[in-house]
Amino acid sequence: MPTHDPNLWGAGDAYERYMGRWSRGIAPIFIRWLEVAPGARWADIGCGTGVVTSAILDACQPSEVVSIDSSGVFLQSAAANVADPRVSFRQGNAQAIAEPDGGFDVAVSGLVLNFVAEKDAAIREMARIVRPGGTVALYVWDYAGHMQVMRRFFDVATVLDPAAADYDDGTKAPICRPQPLMEILTRSGLHDVEVRAIDIPAAFDSFDDYWAPFLGGTGSAPKYCMSLDEPARDRLRQEVRRRLPTGPDGEILLSIRAWAAKGRVL
Questions:
Q1: Using an 8 Å Cβ cutoff, are 113 and 139 in contact?
Q2: CATH numbers and ranges of domains, the chain
Q3: Which of 220, 117, 92, 134 shows the shortest CA–CA distance to 175?
């Protein structure tokens, strides 16, 4: 998962607990939406812990998947999670992909674009490595709206501490909205561009189940949470807990939305 902040995504296991488990719900829906025929050659750009790569293998009968990430830690996690001879994991940069022109049928990216410094360059690179008639596609969280796991956290955090806004991807990642996604794919020369919402539920057995991933330090909200001293973190914890919708047995049910976008290479 490329990012201009190398300290943001340092721990594969912590990322799995925080976001990977929800991406596992989104990725299969996203992959089926692309309607790619069996036997295609795929590139997974910013493969992280292997969530999208796994969904491709499960649903699409690919001939090959080349999965690329800038993080060696994530690549180690992905290789441990995905054991399939059709997959090769490679370290690389989304803004300068070390693959030849037109070598893939599909290039995809999950939860990466907002962390890339040169976003237009990343989309152009994905388009470059895909053959004419092939597909470029991605998805990102709806940070400002219905990605409620994070939205509930930051809505409280920014009231208690305005400095929390510096970590809030709802304001710091304006690309994660339908119109900017449509525009960046079109600007990169892709055709027949489509954007859609993908929604899944996020269920937690208890508040502790919800809160624990914020203590992992991996990702923007956990990074902010662990920057606080203990009294401030406890105050945040108590206020988040007070505002979350909680069932009679302590269960919490939230919703999660991703925005998915795809286009065709001419």
A1: no
A2: 12-264 (3.40.50.150)
A3: 117
> pLDDT (tens digit, 9 = 90+) per residue, 129-163?
999 999 999 999 999 999 999 999 999 999 999 99
**What is the 3-state secondary structure of 22-67?**
HHHHHHHHHHHHHCCCCCCEEEEECCCCCHHHHHHHHHHCCCEEEE
What is the C-alpha to C-alpha distance for residues 98 and 92, in angstroms, rounded to an integer?
7
| Residues of the chain under the 70 pLDDT cut | 1-14
Q: How far is CA 55 from CA 30, 33, 51, 103, 122, in A?
A: 9, 12, 6, 21, 22
Residues 6+ apart with CB under 8 A from 190: 123, 127, 136, 263, 264, 265
Residue-by-residue DSSP string for 75-138:
HHHHHHH---TTEEEEE-BTTB--S-TT-EEEEEEES-GGG-SSHHHHHHHHHHTEEEEEEEEE
Which strand ranges, in their side-by-side order, compose the sheet holding 130-141? 87-91, 64-69, 41-45, 104-110, 130-141, 252-264, 191-204
